[in-house]
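Let us work through a complete example step by step.
Step 1: write down the sequence.
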Amino acid sequence: MRRRSVPCRIVALLTACGLALLAGCLARPVAAQVPDSLSADTADTAWRTALPPLTVTATRVPAAPSQAPARIRVLDSTARAQTGATSVSELLEERAGLHVRQYGPGGLATVSLRGTGASQTAFLLDGHRIGNPQLGQLDLRLLPTMLLSSVEVMHGPASPLHGSDGIGGAVHLRSRRPTAPLQARASVQGGAFGSRSTNVLLGGEGTQTSVVAAAEYRYTDGDFPYTDEALFPPRTVRRQNADREHLSIYSSVRTRWANHNLRVAGWATRVERGLPGPSITAASDERQWDTQLRLWADDTIQQPWGTLSLGGLVQHGRLRYADPDQNLDQTGRTWRSSLEAEARVPLAGRWLVTGGITTARATARHPRLEQDAHEQQGAAFVSGRGTWGRLRLFPAVRLDIYHMPGADTYGSVNPRLGINWQPLSGVEGVRVKAHAGRAFRTPTLNDRYWQPGGRPDLRPERGWSVDAGALWNGPHGRVEASVFANWRRDQIVWRPSSNGSWRPANVQRVRARGWELSAERQWRLPGAVQLDAGLTYTYTDARNRSAPDADTYNAPLRYVPRDQMKPHLTVSWGPAALDLNARYTGRRYVTSDGSRSLDPYVLLDAQVRLSHRLGGVQGTASAQLENALDTDYTVVNNHPMPPRHLTLRLTASF
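Step 2: predict the structure and record it as tokens.
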């Protein structure tokens, strides 16, 4: 595919904007009040400092992100409104300090966090692990943001708190809960390439019981134009077999009585999509159907000695793949169930200790899997938060035991120690963080039982990770910088065998290191004008350290960009707002020896929002111009991305 070189002036402009933002964060702010003329929608998109969000992803106890030992990024309704993101993949791509690997606009979307792969980040839904036990990864494009209140991203080892997969970190999805006695919201959207969607949300909160229900439907033809370099001469064609249809339904009931706080929730999705394949191949008729059902419940019980929490999740997935050209039609099914009990107890006036046990079972059925493809897991964990003046310690350790047919039962002990220190007396907003721990990932059911090639004797991947950073959090802005390094061994790689089939093996060693920077700043100007700006930058150097005599030794890992920069700016004036979201993604290597790479690219999305209240109805209209620079780019080789296009959205809230 033809690629345009990155405009040097645009990269320089992004860098200059980032430096200006950092200088502005450290400068003394001009005091101002939020004007009364700001609409409710505009106020919702303002950067909130009065009530900082609480997270348990990094500590297992409620804590503000600034008081946690690890870097935490919380993306709430403000980020969702400012980006116009409709899926978790879009939200993380716009605002999080990680890389989203996309196989085209409708294909698989996974994350790379601190140089790790798609299956090395733990995914949680309201505290429950929801990864696919057969594939070991989660398609973030199938997760709509309208069903979520926030998305938390934790950087660093998550296995001591949440178990397998947390080598690079954890992504925690928080589902919607009602926030008013009665609320309703409806939205319709339409755009280029046959894109259209609608969603509805209803909810209410009473004295003891609250209920929320939501549904979303999305469809697109996906037939955007692109330049096909495989043709001679190259010419512009339209993407074929790229249509998608997506339906999601969610409901939650929460009730309180005596000392119990019980919540039951369910989430069902069904997605049908065409698989157009690489652009260098002939158009195919391959299709895929993804159906998922998740049911979970939690009960928090207040006791004289502390808090007892009980919870469980049942997850069922069905994946059907059909290729008429190969006369192939296969369906795979997975099941995952888990139970957890956790106690939280204050001790000796300094400590808040959390401990518990969890058990889980995962099963998969597929024509290419052995009949008895399942695993059982049990774990015991303890973590704490100790306070000595301005110093907080966060020790944690977790023991996981796995059993699966045809392999020995094995255990993994993963410790962690984190600190959060306030170096200046009386200056609450300055913090120093440090974090070190061990993490692991168990082989997937495909790794163990796929036929031919699966190996039940595979060892789990293991790694160590360390990081340190500093945070400045002021009344109108914040800056956080951190450095990190991680080492991984026994990483599983599928390689061709002597009989022509592919087999997995524990062969790869990886070293990754880098640094991360994020900044946010708010200005309130005369004339009811408000500016909200932010910047995220990541530098990642991830290299293969497996075989010193091989050509691939010390080569950069495939599809891990070394540099990423994500600046954004929102200008609000009364009921109107302008959102600008830019992204620079550096070079990605496509070969294991680092001999070929994809060019860097710059993207810019622009959105205009207008709000108006009429009685008890709040209406919002928005127009979003995606890829405003009309950049010709790919995230994964030979999977083209759409050119410049427009999306319109209307929302009414009651």
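Step 3: interpret the result. The longest strand covers residues 502-525.
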